[in-house]
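thought: fold this chain, then report.
action: predict
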Amino acid sequence: MSAEELLHFYKPKLWEIPRPSTEVYEALPSKIAVLAERLESIVQTHKMVKLASSLAVEDMLITDMIARYRLVISVFTLNTGLLHKETLALWEVLIKHYPDLTTHIFMPDMVRTNAFVEEFGKTPFYESVALRRQCCFLRKIEPLSHALKDADAWITGQRREQSITRAELTFVEEDKQHQMAKYNPIFDWSEQEVWAYILTYQVPYNTLYQQGYPSIGCDPCTRPVKAGEDIRAGRWWWENQESKECGLHK
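observation:
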């Protein structure tokens, strides 16, 4: 057996985009109807609502719903400065695919971020949870605060299934830090249900999903996941499951 054949033989099978069952597709219209009601209720309750999009399939699903139902919800993303090129490419696709949406992109304070890199190096997040969270604070949490300055509610694409840290997730939470309501409108959706929507309505999605990435964050902090692994196993894979949050969702 050649070296190439050996590599192929021992190369682990990676996570693949789910193939939703017939039952999931049949139930999709009712899931969509409930989601539409949830989003409508959020808009009717608040003056300025924003979707924080990481450009994950969950956020693309909600983005598509916002556009489809012409909801007054703006969409923003946080460009941490460490995103995959595929993720940045998807943002450009989103803008062209949904030309009527209000979209914004927020960057970190590069003076402070560069100072952090100069002091601790380019990849200090591998050394300790504390340094990783400090990096996340500069690149995500501070820009999020800027993004939410004029909002009175924000929306996420979090789901209970995603990790043990989100198992008790509810539809609405109180964001004490930003003093506003925070909504998780697909908290009770399964991975198959999300993909059933994406595939049915041909919603654009990150090409990294085709390369074994079921959960996508910053480039240095994300890797492909083996088939059968937890879908968040590729996020901050060097840490314990209990610490796998960046601080955006406390």
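thought: worth noting. The longest strand covers residues 73-78.
final: tokens above.
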